[in-house]
Design brief:
Layout: H1 3-21, H2 26-45, H3 48-55, H4 61-72, H5 78-88, H6 95-117, H7 120-136, H8 138-144, H9 151-162, H10 168-179, H11 185-199, E1 203-209, H12 215-229, E2 233-239, E3 247-251, E4 254-257, H13 260-271
Parallel strand pairs: 1-2
Antiparallel strand pairs: 1-3, 3-4
Helix pairs in contact: 1-5, 1-6, 2-6, 3-6, 4-5, 5-6, 6-11, 7-11, 9-10, 10-11
């Protein structure tokens, strides 16, 4: 995002929880607001003229907010309307970035609800595990990632896979990204997991090990990485027996290969 849009998003994000807390029932209001913001984005995707009008900084904030109120006053909840009016009143660099801002606000609302419900860690874990399921099932990934297929059909396919297996928050988040894929299904699900970790004030370390880590080993690794990177870490682990021993750690673009397989590979290179 450009600077103006980043500032706009920061401003609305800071007031988001306050809008959700109005009138109590934070968990329910957060879930409703998140899904309704996604619905608004769907409508804007189908109406470029409206999208541009709501983000047009050449028009006064009051005029843009009046337009949004007239269109949505009786179609969304009070908290959703409050967030939308707040967003519309900001200055966004482009209509596209305004749209992206609404998506991020919708996700944030759902994360706030999950946090209040006490299952944000579970949501993060489910999102990460789903990215692994997609990675291990290329045909499923191809089907849900085919942009030539109608978004509703892609969502229906994945909804059948997810039914009864994840929280309502995870399902809402994943179905939104599958309907409007940004990069690819695997990367987009990982991005959601990273956003959930960020809500908890943590960065993600993706760790591949030759055998499952114990809870104590995970905690010790998290503490060690926190000292190295100067930030609390959320550990996402997966087992890869081909590593033979040790582990491979990925933090952002950095890779630390301490696996037995990696050491043997480097040894062969040095001897060759």
């Amino acid at each position: 995002m450009h600077a103006a849009s980043r500032e706009a998003l920061t401003t609305v994000t800071e007031s988001l929880k306050g809008h959700l807390e109005q009138g109590g029932q934070l968990v329910a209001r957060a879930a409703q607001t998140g899904t309704e913001l996604f619905d608004v984005v769907e409508s804007l995707d189908d109406n470029r003229t409206l999208r541009v009008a709501l983000a047009n900084s050449a028009t006064s904030a009051e005029a843009r907010q009046g337009l949004a109120r007239n269109l949505l006053d009786d179609k969304v909840s009070e908290s959703t309307l409050a967030v939308l009016l707040d967003a519309v009143g900001q200055t966004w660099s482009t209509a596209r970035e305004f749209r992206q801002g609404l998506i991020l606000l919708g996700r944030r609302a759902l994360f706030i609800g999950a946090e209040a419900e006490g299952n944000l860690v579970q949501v993060e874990d489910e999102l990460f595990r789903l990215s692994r399921i997609l990675r291990d099932n290329p045909e499923l990934t191809r089907l849900v990632g085919d942009k030539k297929t109608e978004p509703a059909k892609r969502r229906e396919l994945l909804a059948n896979v997810l039914y009864g297996k994840v929280t309502h928050t995870t399902e809402a988040l994943v179905l939104q990204v599958i309907g409007r894929i940004e990069k690819d299904p695997i990367t987009d699900c990982r991005s959601l997991a990273e956003q959930a970790a960020e809500m908890r004030g943590k960065n993600i370390a993706r760790v591949e090990t030759a055998r499952e880590l114990s809870p104590e080993q995970r905690d010790a690794l998290a503490e060690k990485l926190a000292r190295i990177y100067g930030h609390e870490m959320s550990i996402h682990t997966e087992v890869d027996t081909s590593l033979l021993g040790g582990m491979v750690i990925r933090v952002g673009d950095e890779v630390i290969d301490g696996s037995t397989a990696g050491k043997l590979r480097r040894l062969r290179v040095n001897l060759g």
